[in-house]
Design brief:
two-stranded antiparallel ribbon, 324 residues, 87% helix
Length: 324
């Protein structure tokens, strides 16, 4: 007698989940498109676009999902989503893209960001050891992100001024091509759609987890992580099509940086939240390993080839198998 209502509720949860994924993807695409056009309008490099503007845009789904999860008292989905997304960004997305085409990346251009990601991951591990992400750590993370972003744009602005002084014509053409009347609505649409999609997604994910008896941490590490990584995947595939590997690499590494410092940091700044002990023995070390392995590969090879892509992709498949 109770099966029909429960089954109907289960189906509605899937409808909410899928609707949330669609809205998250659309919102991320709008925001990324608007942000990328804005960056080009002001003469920023493609790598900086990937590391900052595009990375910020593609990390917005994780931020909105994290905030909704936090306010609805589901901290495991918040942390699982961030950690799972960072693992998926390197293992799934970067691995799959390297399988499609070799990705030349200058190590010096992304070394600082990789070191920041690894250092922040170690700090998160120590916080998980104590079982909580405190407010002061949220402040440190978020303040560090603001400082990093400000310095990146400051250096880019100085370089852009030197270029414009020598040859002002190309910059004027870019401003005419990328009109603010197009950029602003695109960015605003992304900011409006993302929180709506996040709310649908979290509601569906939590209900499905409860119905199937799956822990919210596993849901965050897998389904939520894959869903909120869709904007990264879409932008990376577009970068391959346009042969902009700097944007691709910058997007992945920058997104991982923003996920840790912005999402975990900003959420912790608002409300301190508990960290599951399960993260210590499996998920945080795996997230660290996926980022750390990029250091020697990029330092020696100055990029990723198809073999590297296969290894990363296979490692991610193995991680999902462990989570099953």
């Amino acid at each position: 007698m109770n099966f029909a209502p429960n089954y109907s509720s289960f189906l509605l949860s899937w409808v909410a989940l899928i609707s949330g994924l669609v809205l998250l993807t659309a919102g991320g695409e709008f925001l990324v498109s608007g942000a990328a056009k804005l960056a080009k309008r002001f003469g920023m490099s493609s790598l900086l676009i990937g590391l900052t503007v595009v990375a910020f845009g593609t990390s917005m789904p994780e931020l909105f999902v994290g905030l909704i999860a936090l306010f609805q008292d589901h901290p495991d989905i918040l942390t699982g989503n961030v950690i799972g997304s960072n693992i998926a960004n390197v293992g799934l997305i970067l691995g799959a893209c390297a399988l499609i085409t070799p990705l030349p990346v200058r190590f010096k251009s992304v070394a600082l960001e990789l070191y920041i990601v690894l250092a922040a991951t170690i700090i998160v591990f120590l916080a998980a050891w104590h079982g909580i992400f405190p407010r002061y750590l949220g402040f440190i993370f978020f303040a560090s992100l603001i400082f990093y972003t400000f310095q990146s744009f400051h250096l880019a602005a100085k370089k852009s001024k030197r270029v414009q002084k020598n040859d002002p014509e190309p910059q004027q053409q870019l401003r005419e091509k990328y009109s603010l009347s197009v950029i602003v609505p695109l960015t605003a649409a992304g900011l409006i759609v993302l929180p709506i999609g996040s709310n649908f997604f979290i509601k569906g994910a939590v209900d499905i987890a409860r119905y199937l008896g799956v822990s919210e941490l596993v849901i965050g590490l897998t389904l939520a992580a894959l869903g909120t990584s869709l904007p990264e995947l879409a932008s990376c595939l577009a970068a391959i099509r346009l042969k902009q590997t700097n944007i691709l690499a910058g997007n992945i590494i920058g997104s991982n940086l923003f996920n840790i410092l912005m999402v975990l940091g900003f959420c912790g700044l608002i409300i301190p939240y508990p960290l599951s002990g399960n993260l210590l023995t499996r998920d945080i070390p795996i997230m660290f390993s996926f980022s750390a392995v990029l250091l020697p590969i990029l330092a020696v090879q100055q990029g990723l080839n198809r073999l590297h892509g296969f290894i990363l992709f296979a490692a991610y498949a193995g991680y999902l198998y462990v989570l099953r």
